[in-house]
Amino acid sequence: MKAVLIVIGVLVVALVATYVRYQSLSPCDWMAQDLAAQSDLPLLVVEGRIRANFLLEGIADPGPYDCVFAWWKFRAEGLPKGGQ
Asked: Which is nearest to 46 in space by CA: 63, 64, 70, 25?
């Protein structure tokens, strides 16, 4: 029972931290905000670019899973490569 309470506590803290940072729990919003911050482009332009990328991949209506996967991919590309 104690382990369940700890897991629930960690999940609540993670949700609150995510909401404080992005003011949203939508992974599509996370990606748009991170890309806008990195590129200094207006959020509307970044959202259009994201939508165009999804369309090029054949995804007309991206769901949360699609956005989480794309956001993880974006975040992983920004990491320094090993040994450099």
From this structure: 70
User: In the chain, how many domains are there?
Assistant: 1
Half-sphere exposure of 59 (CA within 13 A, CB side): 15
| Residue 19 counted as domain residue | no
Domain that holds residue 57: 25-84
Q: Is residue 67 part of a domain?
A: yes
For the stretch 9-48, pLDDT in tens is: 999 999 999 999 999 999 999 999 998 988 889 999 999 9
Angle at 16 between CA 53 and CA 4, to 5 degrees: 110
